[in-house]
Amino acid sequence: MQAVSKRYGGVHALQRAELTVEAGRIHAVLGENGAGKSTLIKIMAGVVAPDEGRMLLDGQPVTFASPAAANAAGIVCIFQELSLIPDLSVADNIAISNPPRRFALIDRKAQRRMAEEALARAGAEDIHPMALVKDLSLSRRQMVEIAKALGRRPRILILDEATSALTAADVTKIYAVLKRLRAEGLALVYISHRMHEITELADECTVFCNGRSVASYAAGTKSDNEVVELMIGREYSGVFPAKPQRVASTSPPRLELRRLGWTDRLHDISLQLRAGEVVGLGGLDGQGQRELLLALFGVLRGTTGELLVDGRPVTLSGPHAAKQAAIGMALIPEDRKTEGLMLPMSVGDNLGFAALGRLSRWGIVDRAAERAAVDRIVRLLAVRCDGSGVPAGSLSGGNQQKLVIGKWLMMAPRIILLNDPTRGIDVGTKQEIYQLLRRLADEGAAILFYSTDYDELVGCCDRVLVMLEGAIHRELVGAEITERALISSALNIGAEAVA
Amino acid sequence: MTDDWRYRLREHKATLLAFAAFVVMFTIYAANHPAGLNANVATTAANKGVLLAIVAMAQTLVVLTAGIDLSVGMVLVLANCLASAIVVGSPLMTALGVLGVLATGALCGAINGLIVIYGRLQPIVTTIATGAMFYGAALALRRVPGGDVNSGLADALTGQLPGGVPASLALLLGLVLIIWLPFRRSAIGRAAYAVGSSEVAAYMSGVPIRRAKFLAYLLSGLLASVAGLFVTFITYSGEASAANGSTYTLYSIAAVVLGGVSLFGGSGSAVGAIFGALMFRTIGDLLFVFNLEPLWQPLFQGLVLFAAICLGSARLLRVRNRLDLYA
What we know:
The structure holds two protein chains of two kinds. Chain A is of the alpha/beta class. Chain A has two domains: 2-232, Rossmann fold; 255-498, Rossmann fold. In chain A, strands 6-9-10-3-11-12 form a six-stranded mixed β-sheet, with helices on both faces. A six-stranded mixed β-sheet of chain A has the order 18-21-22-15-23-24, with helices on both faces. A four-stranded antiparallel β-sheet of chain A has the order 2-1-4-5, covered by helices on one side. In chain A, a hairpin with a 2-residue loop joins strand 11 and strand 12 (212-218). The two termini of chain A are 35 Å apart. By secondary structure, chain B is mainly α. Chain B has one domain (14-27, 39-309): ABC transporter involved in vitamin B12 uptake, BtuC. Chain B has 14 helices and no strands. Chain B has helices spanning 4-11, 13-32, 39-64, 72-86, 91-118, 123-141, 151-158, 167-185, 187-197, 199-204, 209-235, 242-258, 270-289, 296-312. The longest helix of chain B is centred in the first third of the chain and has 28 residues, at 91-118. The radius of gyration of chain B is 20 Å and the shape is globular. The chains are: A alpha/beta, B mainly alpha. The A-B interface holds A 47, 66-68, 71, 79, 82-89, 92-93, 96-99, 101, 104-106, 128, 130-132, 135, 148, 262-263, 291, 294, 299-302, 318 and B 1, 3-4, 7-8, 10-11, 182, 185-187, 190, 193-194, 196-198, 200-207, 262, 266-267, 319-323.
């Protein structure tokens, strides 16, 4: 890959990135959330096309119009559980891209043999080839995904966090498989956040930061400390409001969670949220942060543990219960297009939804009160639009996100949960949102703020809870919150190793 | 391996359930029929059942891709009107006429497929619109009911084979062997299942999504026109009846659901849908042999359909994340 760039809207996902992978080697790609790793492999796998730069395969320039084209060239990518078809059997899935045929029909016996062989190569003989994928557990599906990739006889195999869902026994098997493939002369690109895996497997490493490939080196030539240093090195993208002095409070916390658990995704989470506080949720993407916010908002069924609001135990049956005045909880969701806004409806209607109960009398919406409340929020948040009658979908991403926040401000929330609210919006709007969060906290709201942007957590939060594998791994307070501390605790590198 | 049969059973569970339910219903019907199960009773029942079964097969192909075809009934009506005009005369003329009707049905299906694939419109609105157009064409062909059909061919297909077996059942079997089984066993048919189950995963796996969808719609139109031909053979005439078209469309969806084909796409079999259709028809006949007034028929058909949907939705009770309820 030479000087490859990709932009999404105004955001540079990749800027002149370089990556060279040799046959018979395992090449690890490292970088924090949003550093450009996923975009890079999507380009290699033919899922997205680069804006600039070129890709050379055996010295020849290549372009892939689709994943099928990349496969044909011998590049196979294992995404995290994305490419299996739930209603088909394991054998059907393994053979999906090119099933063995006799007289134009699929030869089931040959397909069965092919599947058994691929499963054996992946060390997953325990999976029955006729089982339906949707009946398998997550770790078994991941093994099928690996077997499927091997069944295509790739020359370059890309693994994106392929071990994150696996059991320890499977991981050991996969290590052996990968080392055997390396010996067979395949080129392997290995993306992982687990430093010990990289130490164990990689021959070379490339670090990504802010869409650039910042360093390539032979494995073992840099300490963990130096690697973290490389992963940070980015300029500040926002200006943050000053944090107030923390004062000890004797009143019960606004929200307290005791020993929350949910299926195998959340374990034993206890936390306290006080009025006036902005608490961050950190860690790598997908460590249970979203589930924690959904659990607080009453969306998940079958949670264990206790939730207390103002010191009183409560059970929330869903968002409707959570937003009642006594609780006053709001969740700003991550996907504003599907969970946050009704895009075809007007700005005013969207802002009104969450607070309709408060603006109505005997079930009839008081239009004048609604109009006044909407105008107040539009001014407060400086939403740039041609009046509150235009469809929400016509606004820019940043202004849409303001609407999502504004919608919940209409009901004067006392507890605000935010799920990565600044993803994909411009710097100016980000800053306005940071100011707003601090002002809301000063006015007495308790804020829990999940962000994949470490910068933001450092700049905005009074405390940060770092999550790892569905549990709170570490709590950072005040001056402890540094990008270095966030990254090393997210990667579970001992604090002493970094200090 | 010894536990292969367990997985086979799991794979065909829905189809086997539909088959069992039909056998139970039909046994009760035959046992209580005043004339017993003679060849004539069987033939009349088979002709009605096969007609719906063919339309249900057509619907299944599209539903498997997570689409829906609300124009099947109108393609049937159009094929009926066309057949009543051109499937006449000498054996050669008749054969050409049949081919013409089938080609028209396939063309209707192809139009649906192209609009859904390249126009990226939702199947539900696309097929409502094209269905209305197909009906318009039918009306232009037959302003008033009438026409004729080659009665030799009609009687052969709606009558009995030597030994008293209804000829329509043989026709149905032939369609399963010529159209359904090759589809089910081919790579392109597998692709249709994959698209219905998870279009993103199918794309990521390099599956030919467009070809699979196109073939599903094309075959759906073709099968609907076979049903239209069969209507002509039963009635010896053509009628541009909007009510008939709508009824067949709705019943085909009912039959698909009863046959265990998932409306979310990706799972089920046309064989299941065939038994779903036969079951649906038998409900009406059951009420007849027990001397209940015909007005109870829609009510009972509705109840059976409702029970089938409840069975299919049982999984929702196990959902742990409420957001999955809306997915």
